[in-house]
Design brief:
Elements: H1 6-33, H2 37-61, H3 96-120, H4 124-150
Length: 169
């Protein structure tokens, strides 16, 4: 993606932040439905952080004509946007620590995505914005590391099911 224009980079950035916000909102709703209020509140805060970053990116992008990319035209390092939380990593009984570790992985993936643009883009303005976005994601990750460090240790038993699986005959 190093030869992509600033407009293409910003289109990816808008989508990345939009998908992060949407996923965190979904996870907050799911945790609320499962009465995991502490984790639901955390995911709601992460959705708000994504909304704020999206607003920042959208303000920059408003000055440019962004390409209208189809879902399959986005060039992500993996199947999904780097900051979209993995459904597989979520459990309805996950702890706040688990949720924060998931968010930390997302922040680091987004930081790596933006840093790759900062290092490889041929366009100086793209490198500048990418470095700025990477630094913001690194700052978010550092804040999460600090918060995780302040949490009490926990056992891994919170994810174990209380009931035997129900198998129809």
């Amino acid at each position: 993606m190093s030869t992509q224009s600033l407009a293409e980079f910003l289109a990816h950035s808008v989508e990345l932040e939009s998908e992060a916000r949407e996923r965190y909102l979904e996870l907050a709703e799911s945790m609320t439905a499962h009465h995991n209020s502490e984790v639901a509140a955390f995911f709601a805060r992460m959705a708000e952080e994504s909304r704020l970053h999206l607003a920042e990116v959208a303000e920059i992008a408003a000055e440019h004509q962004l390409p209208e990319l189809k879902a399959w035209e986005f060039q992500w390092p993996d199947e999904e946007s780097p900051e979209a939380a993995s459904y597989e990593a979520v459990h309805y009984r996950m702890s706040l620590r688990d949720a924060m570790l998931l968010a930390l992985d997302n922040e680091r993936a987004a930081q790596k995505f933006y840093a790759s643009f900062a290092q490889t883009s041929e366009d100086a303005q793209t490198r500048q914005f990418a470095a700025q976005f990477a630094a913001e994601e690194a700052s978010h990750a550092a804040q999460l590391v600090k918060k995780i460090g302040a949490l009490p240790e926990e056992s891994g038993h919170h994810l174990e099911e209380d009931d035997e699986p129900h198998m129809p005959e």
